[in-house]
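User: Fold this; C-alpha coordinates only.

Assistant: Input:
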Amino acid sequence: MSNSTQVFEPKTKTGKIANFVDQRVSASALVKEFGRKVFPDHWTFMFGEVALYTFIVLLLSGTFLTFWFNPSMAETIYEGSYNPLKGVEMSVAYASSLDISFEIRGGLFARQVHHWAALLFVAAMSVHMLRVFFTGAFRRPRELNWVIGCVLLILGMAAGFTGYSLPDDLLSGNGLRIIDGVIKAIPVVGTYISFFLFGGEFPGTAIIGRLYILHVMVVPALIILMIVLHMMFVVLHKHTQYAGPGKTAQNVVGAPVGPVFGAKAGGFFFIVFGVVALISGFFTINPIWNYGPYDPSPVSAGTQPDWYIGWVDGALRLMPGVLGDFSFEWILPLPWGHNNLILNVLAPMIPAAILIGTMMAWPWIERWVTKDNREHHFAERPRNAPFRTGVGVAGFIWYCVMWAAASSDLIATHFHVALNDVTYWLRVLFFLGPILGFIITRRICLSLQRKDREIVLHGREAGIIEMSPVGGYSERHEDLDEYKRYKLVAWESPEVIPALPNADGKVTFWEKQRGKLSRFFFEDRVAPVTPRELEEAKAHGHHAVEAGHDDAKELKH
Protein backbone atom coordinates (compact mmCIF):
# COMPACT_ATOMS: atom_id res chain seq x y z
CA MET A 1 0.00 0.00 0.00
CA SER A 2 1.46 3.34 -0.99
CA ASN A 3 1.83 6.21 1.45
CA SER A 4 -0.96 8.11 -0.33
CA THR A 5 -3.48 5.46 0.68
CA GLN A 6 -2.31 5.00 4.25
CA VAL A 7 -4.66 6.59 6.76
CA PHE A 8 -3.89 6.38 10.45
CA GLU A 9 -6.47 6.54 13.20
CA PRO A 10 -5.75 7.08 16.89
CA LYS A 11 -6.56 4.21 19.17
CA THR A 12 -10.10 4.32 20.59
CA LYS A 13 -10.38 3.19 24.19
CA THR A 14 -13.45 1.63 25.72
CA GLY A 15 -13.50 4.27 28.42
CA LYS A 16 -14.29 6.96 25.87
CA ILE A 17 -17.91 5.76 25.55
CA ALA A 18 -18.97 7.69 28.66
CA ASN A 19 -17.22 10.84 27.47
CA PHE A 20 -18.75 10.38 24.06
CA VAL A 21 -22.25 10.31 25.56
CA ASP A 22 -21.60 13.23 27.90
CA GLN A 23 -20.49 15.48 25.06
CA ARG A 24 -24.01 15.37 23.51
CA VAL A 25 -22.61 15.92 20.05
CA SER A 26 -24.95 16.70 17.18
CA ALA A 27 -26.07 14.17 14.58
CA SER A 28 -23.92 15.85 11.93
CA ALA A 29 -20.88 15.53 14.19
CA LEU A 30 -21.63 11.82 14.65
CA VAL A 31 -21.84 11.31 10.90
CA LYS A 32 -18.61 13.26 10.42
CA GLU A 33 -16.86 11.20 13.10
CA PHE A 34 -18.02 7.94 11.51
CA GLY A 35 -16.87 9.18 8.10
CA ARG A 36 -13.35 9.56 9.47
CA LYS A 37 -13.21 5.95 10.60
CA VAL A 38 -10.61 3.91 8.79
CA PHE A 39 -11.10 0.38 7.48
CA PRO A 40 -8.15 -1.74 6.29
CA ASP A 41 -8.22 -3.32 2.86
CA HIS A 42 -7.97 -7.10 2.67
CA TRP A 43 -10.03 -9.56 0.65
CA THR A 44 -10.87 -11.67 3.71
CA PHE A 45 -12.71 -8.71 5.27
CA MET A 46 -15.29 -8.77 2.47
CA PHE A 47 -17.28 -11.74 3.80
CA GLY A 48 -18.83 -9.62 6.53
CA GLU A 49 -19.89 -7.11 3.90
CA VAL A 50 -21.46 -9.88 1.81
CA ALA A 51 -23.49 -10.95 4.85
CA LEU A 52 -24.69 -7.38 5.44
CA TYR A 53 -25.62 -6.79 1.80
CA THR A 54 -27.48 -10.07 1.42
CA PHE A 55 -29.46 -9.19 4.54
CA ILE A 56 -30.49 -5.94 2.86
CA VAL A 57 -31.54 -7.96 -0.20
CA LEU A 58 -33.56 -10.20 2.13
CA LEU A 59 -35.36 -7.21 3.62
CA LEU A 60 -36.22 -5.81 0.18
CA SER A 61 -37.40 -9.10 -1.35
CA GLY A 62 -39.18 -10.16 1.82
CA THR A 63 -41.13 -6.89 1.95
CA PHE A 64 -42.28 -7.54 -1.62
CA LEU A 65 -43.45 -11.07 -0.75
CA THR A 66 -45.42 -10.00 2.33
CA PHE A 67 -47.91 -8.10 0.14
CA TRP A 68 -49.27 -11.35 -1.33
CA PHE A 69 -48.48 -14.12 1.14
CA ASN A 70 -51.36 -15.23 3.36
CA PRO A 71 -50.13 -17.13 6.46
CA SER A 72 -53.33 -19.05 7.06
CA MET A 73 -53.73 -22.79 7.57
CA ALA A 74 -57.40 -22.71 6.60
CA GLU A 75 -58.29 -25.29 3.95
CA THR A 76 -59.07 -24.24 0.39
CA ILE A 77 -59.34 -25.77 -3.07
CA TYR A 78 -56.67 -24.61 -5.50
CA GLU A 79 -58.04 -23.02 -8.66
CA GLY A 80 -54.91 -21.27 -9.91
CA SER A 81 -53.06 -21.50 -13.19
CA TYR A 82 -50.84 -24.48 -12.27
CA ASN A 83 -52.89 -27.31 -13.81
CA PRO A 84 -51.30 -30.34 -12.02
CA LEU A 85 -52.60 -29.06 -8.67
CA LYS A 86 -56.02 -27.79 -9.77
CA GLY A 87 -58.79 -29.08 -7.57
CA VAL A 88 -56.35 -30.23 -4.84
CA GLU A 89 -57.20 -29.39 -1.23
CA MET A 90 -54.45 -27.37 0.45
CA SER A 91 -53.84 -24.64 2.99
CA VAL A 92 -54.32 -20.98 2.11
CA ALA A 93 -50.62 -20.43 2.84
CA TYR A 94 -49.59 -22.97 0.21
CA ALA A 95 -52.12 -21.63 -2.29
CA SER A 96 -50.85 -18.07 -1.83
CA SER A 97 -47.26 -19.30 -2.33
CA LEU A 98 -48.34 -20.86 -5.64
CA ASP A 99 -50.09 -17.63 -6.61
CA ILE A 100 -46.92 -15.65 -5.93
CA SER A 101 -44.99 -18.09 -8.12
CA PHE A 102 -47.43 -18.22 -11.07
CA GLU A 103 -49.88 -15.31 -10.84
CA ILE A 104 -47.87 -12.31 -9.57
CA ARG A 105 -45.61 -10.62 -12.10
CA GLY A 106 -42.05 -11.12 -10.87
CA GLY A 107 -43.27 -13.16 -7.91
CA LEU A 108 -41.27 -16.31 -8.66
CA PHE A 109 -38.17 -14.22 -9.25
CA ALA A 110 -38.69 -12.45 -5.90
CA ARG A 111 -39.18 -15.81 -4.15
CA GLN A 112 -35.95 -17.13 -5.59
CA VAL A 113 -34.02 -13.93 -4.81
CA HIS A 114 -35.25 -14.22 -1.22
CA HIS A 115 -34.28 -17.89 -0.92
CA TRP A 116 -30.88 -17.59 -2.59
CA ALA A 117 -30.06 -14.48 -0.55
CA ALA A 118 -30.98 -16.39 2.64
CA LEU A 119 -28.58 -19.20 1.76
CA LEU A 120 -25.81 -16.73 0.92
CA PHE A 121 -26.52 -14.69 4.06
CA VAL A 122 -25.86 -17.63 6.38
CA ALA A 123 -22.93 -18.82 4.25
CA ALA A 124 -21.26 -15.39 4.32
CA MET A 125 -21.75 -15.14 8.09
CA SER A 126 -20.27 -18.60 8.54
CA VAL A 127 -17.16 -17.83 6.48
CA HIS A 128 -16.82 -14.46 8.22
CA MET A 129 -16.92 -16.20 11.60
CA LEU A 130 -14.30 -18.69 10.44
CA ARG A 131 -12.07 -15.82 9.32
CA VAL A 132 -12.43 -14.09 12.68
CA PHE A 133 -11.72 -17.32 14.56
CA PHE A 134 -8.68 -18.47 12.58
CA THR A 135 -7.06 -15.01 12.69
CA GLY A 136 -7.70 -14.52 16.41
CA ALA A 137 -9.72 -11.34 15.81
CA PHE A 138 -12.04 -12.33 18.68
CA ARG A 139 -9.43 -11.69 21.36
CA ARG A 140 -9.61 -8.88 23.90
CA PRO A 141 -11.23 -6.36 23.64
CA ARG A 142 -13.54 -7.96 21.03
CA GLU A 143 -14.90 -10.92 22.98
CA LEU A 144 -18.40 -9.44 23.30
CA ASN A 145 -18.49 -8.70 19.58
CA TRP A 146 -17.60 -12.34 18.89
CA VAL A 147 -20.55 -13.46 21.04
CA ILE A 148 -22.78 -11.03 19.11
CA GLY A 149 -21.55 -12.66 15.91
CA CYS A 150 -22.45 -16.11 17.26
CA VAL A 151 -25.93 -14.84 18.17
CA LEU A 152 -26.27 -13.39 14.66
CA LEU A 153 -25.41 -16.78 13.17
CA ILE A 154 -28.05 -18.49 15.32
CA LEU A 155 -30.62 -15.82 14.40
CA GLY A 156 -29.76 -16.27 10.73
CA MET A 157 -30.49 -19.98 11.01
CA ALA A 158 -33.71 -19.23 12.88
CA ALA A 159 -34.80 -16.76 10.19
CA GLY A 160 -34.02 -19.30 7.50
CA PHE A 161 -35.91 -22.13 9.16
CA THR A 162 -39.01 -20.05 9.93
CA GLY A 163 -39.12 -18.80 6.34
CA TYR A 164 -38.44 -22.27 4.93
CA SER A 165 -41.51 -23.57 6.79
CA LEU A 166 -43.98 -20.89 5.66
CA PRO A 167 -45.11 -22.29 2.24
CA ASP A 168 -46.65 -25.30 4.03
CA ASP A 169 -45.55 -27.65 1.26
CA LEU A 170 -44.56 -31.29 1.72
CA LEU A 171 -40.87 -30.48 2.16
CA SER A 172 -41.32 -27.81 4.84
CA GLY A 173 -43.99 -29.89 6.57
CA ASN A 174 -41.54 -32.74 7.04
CA GLY A 175 -39.13 -30.30 8.66
CA LEU A 176 -41.81 -29.18 11.09
CA ARG A 177 -42.62 -32.82 11.79
CA ILE A 178 -39.02 -33.36 12.92
CA ILE A 179 -39.26 -30.34 15.23
CA ASP A 180 -42.53 -31.71 16.61
CA GLY A 181 -40.85 -35.06 17.32
CA VAL A 182 -37.95 -33.42 19.16
CA ILE A 183 -40.31 -31.31 21.27
CA LYS A 184 -42.46 -34.33 22.16
CA ALA A 185 -39.34 -36.23 23.25
CA ILE A 186 -38.93 -33.80 26.15
CA PRO A 187 -40.22 -35.68 29.20
CA VAL A 188 -43.28 -34.45 31.10
CA VAL A 189 -43.80 -31.13 29.28
CA GLY A 190 -42.99 -32.04 25.68
CA THR A 191 -46.48 -32.99 24.58
CA TYR A 192 -47.96 -29.87 26.15
CA ILE A 193 -45.43 -27.61 24.43
CA SER A 194 -46.17 -29.24 21.09
CA PHE A 195 -49.93 -28.90 21.57
CA PHE A 196 -49.76 -25.20 22.42
CA LEU A 197 -47.13 -24.39 19.76
CA PHE A 198 -48.99 -26.01 16.87
CA GLY A 199 -52.47 -25.08 18.11
CA GLY A 200 -53.59 -28.67 18.57
CA GLU A 201 -52.37 -32.08 17.53
CA PHE A 202 -49.71 -31.81 14.80
CA PRO A 203 -49.90 -30.14 12.32
CA GLY A 204 -52.47 -28.05 14.18
CA THR A 205 -54.02 -24.83 12.90
CA ALA A 206 -51.72 -22.06 14.14
CA ILE A 207 -48.06 -22.86 13.46
CA ILE A 208 -47.76 -21.09 10.08
CA GLY A 209 -49.18 -17.82 11.43
CA ARG A 210 -46.89 -17.95 14.44
CA LEU A 211 -43.82 -18.70 12.33
CA TYR A 212 -44.82 -15.84 10.03
CA ILE A 213 -44.76 -13.34 12.92
CA LEU A 214 -41.37 -14.68 13.99
CA HIS A 215 -40.03 -14.55 10.44
CA VAL A 216 -41.14 -11.06 9.41
CA MET A 217 -41.04 -9.22 12.74
CA VAL A 218 -39.29 -10.76 15.73
CA VAL A 219 -36.21 -12.40 14.18
CA PRO A 220 -35.44 -9.57 11.68
CA ALA A 221 -35.74 -7.01 14.49
CA LEU A 222 -33.28 -8.99 16.61
CA ILE A 223 -30.92 -9.35 13.64
CA ILE A 224 -31.00 -5.59 13.00
CA LEU A 225 -30.32 -4.96 16.70
CA MET A 226 -27.35 -7.34 16.66
CA ILE A 227 -25.98 -5.77 13.45
CA VAL A 228 -26.18 -2.29 15.00
CA LEU A 229 -24.38 -3.51 18.12
CA HIS A 230 -21.82 -5.33 15.99
CA MET A 231 -21.04 -2.23 13.90
CA MET A 232 -20.93 -0.05 17.01
CA PHE A 233 -18.28 -2.26 18.58
CA VAL A 234 -16.31 -2.39 15.31
CA VAL A 235 -16.17 1.42 15.30
CA LEU A 236 -15.43 1.56 19.03
CA HIS A 237 -12.61 -0.98 19.07
CA LYS A 238 -11.49 -0.26 15.47
CA HIS A 239 -10.95 -2.96 12.88
CA THR A 240 -8.25 -5.58 13.23
CA GLN A 241 -5.52 -5.57 10.59
CA TYR A 242 -2.67 -7.81 9.52
CA ALA A 243 0.80 -6.92 10.75
CA GLY A 244 3.06 -4.94 8.47
CA PRO A 245 5.55 -2.06 8.42
CA GLY A 246 3.99 1.12 9.74
CA LYS A 247 1.15 -0.71 11.46
CA THR A 248 0.92 -0.52 15.24
CA ALA A 249 -1.67 -1.22 17.91
CA GLN A 250 -2.45 2.52 17.94
CA ASN A 251 -3.37 2.98 14.26
CA VAL A 252 -5.29 1.48 11.37
CA VAL A 253 -3.82 1.63 7.86
CA GLY A 254 -6.49 1.77 5.20
CA ALA A 255 -9.12 4.02 3.66
CA PRO A 256 -11.63 6.27 5.50
CA VAL A 257 -15.33 5.51 5.31
CA GLY A 258 -16.04 8.71 3.43
CA PRO A 259 -15.66 8.91 0.56
CA VAL A 260 -13.27 6.08 -0.39
CA PHE A 261 -14.53 3.08 1.56
CA GLY A 262 -18.18 4.16 1.27
CA ALA A 263 -17.97 4.37 -2.53
CA LYS A 264 -16.30 0.97 -2.77
CA ALA A 265 -18.85 -0.56 -0.38
CA GLY A 266 -21.74 0.87 -2.38
CA GLY A 267 -20.37 -0.59 -5.60
CA PHE A 268 -19.80 -3.93 -3.92
CA PHE A 269 -23.41 -3.97 -2.70
CA PHE A 270 -24.69 -3.71 -6.26
CA ILE A 271 -22.29 -6.45 -7.34
CA VAL A 272 -23.65 -8.77 -4.62
CA PHE A 273 -27.23 -7.84 -5.51
CA GLY A 274 -26.50 -8.48 -9.18
CA VAL A 275 -24.95 -11.89 -8.53
CA VAL A 276 -27.93 -12.95 -6.38
CA ALA A 277 -30.35 -11.74 -9.07
CA LEU A 278 -28.39 -13.57 -11.77
CA ILE A 279 -28.43 -16.84 -9.84
CA SER A 280 -32.12 -16.41 -9.03
CA GLY A 281 -33.01 -15.82 -12.66
CA PHE A 282 -31.22 -18.90 -14.00
CA PHE A 283 -31.33 -21.52 -11.24
CA THR A 284 -34.53 -22.84 -9.66
CA ILE A 285 -34.62 -23.32 -5.93
CA ASN A 286 -37.37 -24.79 -3.75
CA PRO A 287 -39.92 -25.65 -6.50
CA ILE A 288 -42.84 -26.03 -4.09
CA TRP A 289 -45.23 -26.97 -6.91
CA ASN A 290 -43.33 -30.26 -7.32
CA TYR A 291 -43.77 -31.21 -3.68
CA GLY A 292 -47.47 -30.58 -3.27
CA PRO A 293 -49.28 -29.55 -0.08
CA TYR A 294 -48.23 -31.02 3.23
CA ASP A 295 -50.05 -34.15 4.30
CA PRO A 296 -48.90 -35.74 7.57
CA SER A 297 -50.28 -39.19 6.68
CA PRO A 298 -47.79 -40.42 4.02
CA VAL A 299 -44.08 -40.82 4.61
CA SER A 300 -41.88 -39.28 1.90
CA ALA A 301 -38.21 -39.98 1.23
CA GLY A 302 -35.45 -37.76 -0.11
CA THR A 303 -36.39 -34.65 1.84
CA GLN A 304 -33.45 -32.34 2.44
CA PRO A 305 -33.39 -29.24 4.65
CA ASP A 306 -31.49 -26.10 3.69
CA TRP A 307 -27.78 -26.63 4.21
CA TYR A 308 -27.46 -24.55 7.40
CA ILE A 309 -30.06 -26.72 9.19
CA GLY A 310 -28.76 -29.99 7.74
CA TRP A 311 -26.19 -30.55 10.48
CA VAL A 312 -28.91 -30.85 13.15
CA ASP A 313 -30.92 -33.24 10.97
CA GLY A 314 -27.72 -35.21 10.31
CA ALA A 315 -27.06 -35.61 14.03
CA LEU A 316 -30.53 -37.14 14.37
CA ARG A 317 -29.81 -39.59 11.56
CA LEU A 318 -26.49 -40.66 13.06
CA MET A 319 -27.95 -41.46 16.46
CA PRO A 320 -28.67 -45.20 16.86
CA GLY A 321 -31.89 -46.41 18.45
CA VAL A 322 -30.12 -49.17 20.38
CA LEU A 323 -26.55 -50.27 21.07
CA GLY A 324 -26.63 -54.03 21.44
CA ASP A 325 -29.01 -54.67 24.31
CA PHE A 326 -28.84 -51.06 25.51
CA SER A 327 -31.90 -48.99 24.59
CA PHE A 328 -31.91 -45.20 24.48
CA GLU A 329 -35.60 -45.11 25.39
CA TRP A 330 -36.02 -44.95 29.15
CA ILE A 331 -39.18 -45.08 31.22
CA LEU A 332 -39.14 -42.63 34.12
CA PRO A 333 -41.31 -43.57 37.12
CA LEU A 334 -42.95 -40.40 38.41
CA PRO A 335 -45.54 -39.86 41.19
CA TRP A 336 -48.37 -39.47 38.67
CA GLY A 337 -47.31 -42.36 36.44
CA HIS A 338 -44.62 -43.12 33.87
CA ASN A 339 -43.03 -40.85 31.30
CA ASN A 340 -40.74 -41.78 28.42
CA LEU A 341 -37.28 -40.25 27.99
CA ILE A 342 -36.34 -40.67 24.31
CA LEU A 343 -32.57 -40.13 24.38
CA ASN A 344 -32.04 -41.12 20.76
CA VAL A 345 -34.02 -38.00 19.82
CA LEU A 346 -32.76 -35.61 22.51
CA ALA A 347 -29.10 -36.70 22.59
CA PRO A 348 -28.36 -35.46 19.03
CA MET A 349 -29.06 -31.94 20.30
CA ILE A 350 -26.01 -32.24 22.57
CA PRO A 351 -23.41 -31.87 19.74
CA ALA A 352 -25.19 -28.71 18.59
CA ALA A 353 -25.08 -27.30 22.13
CA ILE A 354 -21.39 -28.25 22.50
CA LEU A 355 -20.44 -26.67 19.15
CA ILE A 356 -22.29 -23.40 19.74
CA GLY A 357 -21.33 -23.22 23.42
CA THR A 358 -17.64 -23.77 22.67
CA MET A 359 -17.75 -21.11 19.95
CA MET A 360 -19.16 -18.53 22.34
CA ALA A 361 -16.83 -19.42 25.20
CA TRP A 362 -13.63 -19.81 23.15
CA PRO A 363 -12.22 -16.26 23.72
CA TRP A 364 -12.25 -16.88 27.46
CA ILE A 365 -11.02 -20.47 27.12
CA GLU A 366 -8.00 -19.31 25.11
CA ARG A 367 -7.32 -16.44 27.51
CA TRP A 368 -7.52 -18.85 30.46
CA VAL A 369 -5.09 -21.34 28.90
CA THR A 370 -2.56 -18.73 27.74
CA LYS A 371 -3.02 -16.31 30.67
CA ASP A 372 -2.90 -13.54 28.05
CA ASN A 373 -5.03 -10.57 29.14
CA ARG A 374 -3.51 -8.06 26.73
CA GLU A 375 -5.42 -6.23 24.02
CA HIS A 376 -4.82 -7.58 20.51
CA HIS A 377 -5.42 -5.44 17.44
CA PHE A 378 -3.55 -7.54 14.87
CA ALA A 379 -5.02 -10.48 13.00
CA GLU A 380 -2.79 -13.55 13.16
CA ARG A 381 -1.93 -15.85 10.31
CA PRO A 382 -3.62 -19.18 11.05
CA ARG A 383 -0.31 -21.06 10.82
CA ASN A 384 1.06 -18.99 13.69
CA ALA A 385 -1.61 -20.30 16.08
CA PRO A 386 -1.40 -24.07 15.48
CA PHE A 387 -3.52 -25.11 18.45
CA ARG A 388 -6.35 -22.68 17.62
CA THR A 389 -6.28 -23.58 13.93
CA GLY A 390 -6.33 -27.28 14.79
CA VAL A 391 -9.32 -26.82 17.10
CA GLY A 392 -11.12 -24.79 14.42
CA VAL A 393 -10.56 -27.44 11.76
CA ALA A 394 -11.69 -30.16 14.19
CA GLY A 395 -14.92 -28.30 14.86
CA PHE A 396 -15.43 -27.65 11.15
CA ILE A 397 -14.98 -31.35 10.32
CA TRP A 398 -17.40 -32.29 13.11
CA TYR A 399 -19.97 -29.92 11.61
CA CYS A 400 -19.38 -31.23 8.07
CA VAL A 401 -19.86 -34.86 9.12
CA MET A 402 -23.23 -34.02 10.67
CA TRP A 403 -24.10 -31.92 7.63
CA ALA A 404 -23.24 -34.77 5.25
CA ALA A 405 -25.31 -37.20 7.33
CA ALA A 406 -28.43 -35.18 6.47
CA SER A 407 -27.97 -36.49 2.91
CA SER A 408 -27.07 -40.05 3.84
CA ASP A 409 -30.01 -41.44 1.84
CA LEU A 410 -29.05 -39.47 -1.27
CA ILE A 411 -25.40 -40.51 -0.90
CA ALA A 412 -26.53 -44.14 -0.80
CA THR A 413 -28.78 -43.87 -3.87
CA HIS A 414 -26.43 -41.75 -6.00
CA PHE A 415 -23.32 -43.84 -5.32
CA HIS A 416 -25.18 -47.18 -5.20
CA VAL A 417 -24.01 -48.18 -1.73
CA ALA A 418 -25.90 -49.50 1.26
CA LEU A 419 -27.53 -46.86 3.47
CA ASN A 420 -26.38 -48.68 6.61
CA ASP A 421 -22.77 -48.64 5.39
CA VAL A 422 -22.97 -44.88 4.79
CA THR A 423 -24.33 -44.39 8.29
CA TYR A 424 -21.63 -46.58 9.88
CA TRP A 425 -18.81 -44.72 8.11
CA LEU A 426 -20.27 -41.36 9.08
CA ARG A 427 -20.51 -42.51 12.70
CA VAL A 428 -16.82 -43.42 12.62
CA LEU A 429 -15.95 -40.04 11.12
CA PHE A 430 -18.11 -38.32 13.74
CA PHE A 431 -15.61 -39.43 16.39
CA LEU A 432 -12.32 -39.86 14.50
CA GLY A 433 -12.66 -37.04 11.97
CA PRO A 434 -12.16 -34.14 14.42
CA ILE A 435 -9.22 -35.90 16.11
CA LEU A 436 -7.41 -36.59 12.84
CA GLY A 437 -8.23 -33.09 11.60
CA PHE A 438 -6.72 -31.52 14.71
CA ILE A 439 -3.52 -33.58 14.59
CA ILE A 440 -2.92 -33.14 10.85
CA THR A 441 -3.73 -29.41 10.85
CA ARG A 442 -1.49 -28.74 13.82
CA ARG A 443 1.45 -30.57 12.21
CA ILE A 444 0.91 -28.67 8.94
CA CYS A 445 0.93 -25.34 10.79
CA LEU A 446 4.16 -26.23 12.62
CA SER A 447 5.75 -27.29 9.32
CA LEU A 448 4.74 -24.01 7.69
CA GLN A 449 6.23 -22.10 10.63
CA ARG A 450 9.52 -23.96 10.22
CA LYS A 451 9.46 -23.16 6.52
CA ASP A 452 8.98 -19.47 7.35
CA ARG A 453 12.01 -19.60 9.65
CA GLU A 454 14.07 -21.18 6.90
CA ILE A 455 13.02 -18.52 4.39
CA VAL A 456 13.85 -15.68 6.79
CA LEU A 457 17.25 -17.11 7.74
CA HIS A 458 18.28 -18.51 4.34
CA GLY A 459 16.54 -16.10 2.03
CA ARG A 460 14.26 -16.83 -0.88
CA GLU A 461 15.29 -19.60 -3.27
CA ALA A 462 16.09 -17.89 -6.55
CA GLY A 463 16.05 -21.04 -8.69
CA ILE A 464 19.59 -20.32 -9.94
CA ILE A 465 22.27 -23.02 -9.57
CA GLU A 466 25.86 -21.76 -9.25
CA MET A 467 29.10 -23.68 -9.58
CA SER A 468 32.01 -22.76 -7.32
CA PRO A 469 35.64 -22.59 -8.54
CA VAL A 470 36.27 -26.00 -6.99
CA GLY A 471 33.36 -27.60 -8.86
CA GLY A 472 30.68 -27.53 -6.13
CA TYR A 473 27.07 -26.62 -6.87
CA SER A 474 24.74 -24.53 -4.73
CA GLU A 475 21.48 -22.67 -5.16
CA ARG A 476 21.46 -18.91 -4.94
CA HIS A 477 19.32 -17.35 -2.21
CA GLU A 478 18.02 -13.80 -2.30
CA ASP A 479 17.26 -11.60 0.68
CA LEU A 480 13.63 -10.89 1.44
CA ASP A 481 12.33 -7.38 1.15
CA GLU A 482 11.37 -5.54 4.32
CA TYR A 483 7.63 -6.11 3.94
CA LYS A 484 7.93 -9.85 3.34
CA ARG A 485 10.38 -10.32 6.23
CA TYR A 486 8.15 -8.33 8.58
CA LYS A 487 5.21 -10.57 7.75
CA LEU A 488 7.23 -13.70 8.58
CA VAL A 489 8.72 -12.51 11.88
CA ALA A 490 6.01 -10.24 13.38
CA TRP A 491 4.19 -12.82 15.49
CA GLU A 492 4.32 -14.40 18.93
CA SER A 493 4.63 -18.03 19.94
CA PRO A 494 2.99 -18.77 23.33
CA GLU A 495 5.06 -20.88 25.67
CA VAL A 496 3.95 -23.59 28.08
CA ILE A 497 2.75 -22.09 31.36
CA PRO A 498 2.70 -24.84 33.99
CA ALA A 499 0.12 -24.95 36.76
CA LEU A 500 0.83 -22.12 39.21
CA PRO A 501 -0.11 -21.88 42.89
CA ASN A 502 -2.65 -19.30 44.02
CA ALA A 503 -2.22 -16.71 46.74
CA ASP A 504 -2.52 -19.44 49.39
CA GLY A 505 0.22 -21.50 47.78
CA LYS A 506 -2.16 -24.20 46.55
CA VAL A 507 -2.50 -25.47 43.00
CA THR A 508 -6.22 -25.82 42.41
CA PHE A 509 -7.86 -28.54 40.33
CA TRP A 510 -8.78 -26.15 37.52
CA GLU A 511 -5.28 -24.70 37.48
CA LYS A 512 -3.90 -28.22 37.04
CA GLN A 513 -6.25 -28.73 34.09
CA ARG A 514 -5.16 -25.42 32.61
CA GLY A 515 -1.52 -26.45 32.94
CA LYS A 516 -2.23 -29.73 31.15
CA LEU A 517 -4.02 -27.93 28.31
CA SER A 518 -1.16 -25.43 28.05
CA ARG A 519 1.36 -28.27 27.70
CA PHE A 520 -0.86 -30.09 25.21
CA PHE A 521 -1.27 -27.00 23.04
CA PHE A 522 2.18 -25.44 23.24
CA GLU A 523 4.71 -28.18 24.04
CA ASP A 524 5.56 -28.40 20.34
CA ARG A 525 6.22 -24.86 19.21
CA VAL A 526 8.25 -22.89 16.72
CA ALA A 527 9.73 -19.59 17.83
CA PRO A 528 9.81 -16.58 15.48
CA VAL A 529 13.21 -15.41 14.27
CA THR A 530 14.88 -12.88 16.58
CA PRO A 531 17.01 -9.95 15.36
CA ARG A 532 20.16 -11.62 16.76
CA GLU A 533 19.44 -14.82 14.86
CA LEU A 534 18.93 -12.86 11.66
CA GLU A 535 22.23 -11.04 12.11
CA GLU A 536 24.05 -14.32 12.72
CA ALA A 537 22.44 -15.87 9.66
CA LYS A 538 23.60 -12.96 7.48
CA ALA A 539 27.09 -13.12 8.95
CA HIS A 540 27.33 -16.82 8.10
CA GLY A 541 25.99 -16.48 4.58
CA HIS A 542 22.38 -17.41 5.34
CA HIS A 543 23.17 -20.70 7.06
CA ALA A 544 20.43 -22.02 9.34
CA VAL A 545 20.54 -20.80 12.92
CA GLU A 546 18.37 -22.51 15.53
CA ALA A 547 16.70 -20.42 18.21
CA GLY A 548 18.97 -20.07 21.21
CA HIS A 549 18.07 -20.79 24.82
CA ASP A 550 19.40 -17.39 25.85
CA ASP A 551 16.61 -15.86 23.76
CA ALA A 552 14.04 -18.01 25.58
CA LYS A 553 12.98 -19.18 22.14
CA GLU A 554 13.47 -22.85 21.45
CA LEU A 555 12.67 -24.53 18.17
CA LYS A 556 11.33 -27.98 19.08
CA HIS A 557 11.25 -30.87 16.67
